[in-house]
Design goal:
This protein is an alpha+beta fold and about 160 residues long. Helix content is about 25%, strand content about 35%. The N and C termini lie far apart (about 40 Å).
């Protein structure tokens, strides 16, 4: 068994040239399995509760100086949602203001194809994780920029399926 702990502190935190804190997040996803174990076409995404438990969102957190954006995205997915997988091509970059802190942020989002769901993870005592379909996720996700990332992701998957 491996012991995982969340990173804390802001001493390695990245900021852009305008002083905006840089954060990175993932849309963890999988394709639902049918009763016989075969993979179905229905896409499911994983949302987590905020630490205070009131809001639902995708895993995200600070991008630190000693890691790439992709490494930060995977780390946040492990720490906050307890999932491991393949980080895929970036969905985009958004600028937003934190309502609770009035702070400016630059946010990057990536899809994460989930390969493993951990039984134990660093923030399991302060967060709930919930798999849901895209429509439910769009309804409950509290951040407009994450909803936009979800729409881009769904559009990307649809165009890939049309090419096959």
């Amino acid at each position: 068994m491996v012991c995982l702990v969340s990173r804390t502190g802001r001493h390695l935190q990245r900021y852009d040239n305008l002083g905006r804190r840089q954060v990175v997040g993932c849309i963890p996803y999988r394709f639902k399995r049918s009763n016989d174990g075969a993979i179905a076409d229905e896409l499911e995404v994983l949302l987590i509760s905020s630490q205070k438990g009131q809001k639902m969102m995708f895993p995200k957190g600070g991008w630190e100086l000693d890691e790439s954006r992709e490494e930060a995205a995977l780390r946040e997915s492990i720490e906050e949602a307890g999932v491991i997988g393949n980080v895929e091509c970036e969905l985009g970059k958004w600028y937003f203001i934190s309502k609770s802190h009035g702070t400016f942020y630059e946010g990057h989002m990536f899809p994460l194809l989930v390969k493993e769901e951990l039984e134990f993870w660093p923030e399991q005592n302060v967060r709930q994780r919930t798999w849901m379909n895209v429509e439910e996720a769009r309804d409950v996700c509290q951040h407009w920029w994450m909803k936009e990332a979800l729409d881009i992701f769904v559009e990307r998957l649809s165009s890939l399926q049309l090419q096959q």
